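Lest this sound abstract, we let one protein speak, letters for residues, whole numbers for local backbone shapes, and leave readers to judge:
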Amino acid sequence: MIRAILFDLDDTLYPRQAGIMEQIRILMLRYLRTRLDLSPEEADTLRRRYFQEFGTTMRGLQLNHHIDVDEFLDFVHDIPLRNHIQLNPELDAALASLSQQKVVFTNASREHAERVLDALGVAHHFDRIVDVRDVGFESKPQMAAYRRICELIEVPPEECLLVEDNVRNLRPGKSLGMTTVLVGEDHEGTDPDVDYVLDRVEGIGQVIREIEQAALAEARREVAPRSKP
């Protein structure tokens, strides 16, 4: 039984083609160049290395350069979101059809998440936002983040559906027992850590129906009388 749906924010609740993450990367590189006095090439190399090593560039900067995290988050999320995303009635309807607890699980800031949800017109569907601060900056794909969100929402991982655009961020959840959904038109093939694949997050209702139908079929098999020898 799925009791909670954990939605990633950027490039999941809206398509990657919206370009918001590209703008965040541009601002992140600008921050690295000015804050650490790096060339464009050095900044990009450091960004990639910290992303791979720590899960987010920000975590590497926090541990190794003692940056002001709030300053960094404000700087990289200073984007005119309505130039990139608009109200999404289809997503609004899809979320309204779901009875489960709905939670945003993001490596970004709460403020950025709130602005994205408002721009999409879907903020009222979410019970809470779990942001990078809530997990003590040990963000996805660090295992601690997944354990922490289950503690915060008081739902075991086996009863969570994790919705992401990045397989790397699905794997820890899958290892804990979460059911996983990969979102994005450019994802092809299969992966053992991915249970369902959607081109668009608006199709999440179909995933829930498939899970419920499978659970119902399993329950019927368990109560079916065994044939006599």
Observations:
- Residues 29 and 39 are 10 Å apart (CA to CA).
- The two ends are 34 Å apart (CA to CA).
- The first strand starts at residue 4 and ends at 7.
- The chain has two domains: 4-15+85-223, 20-76.
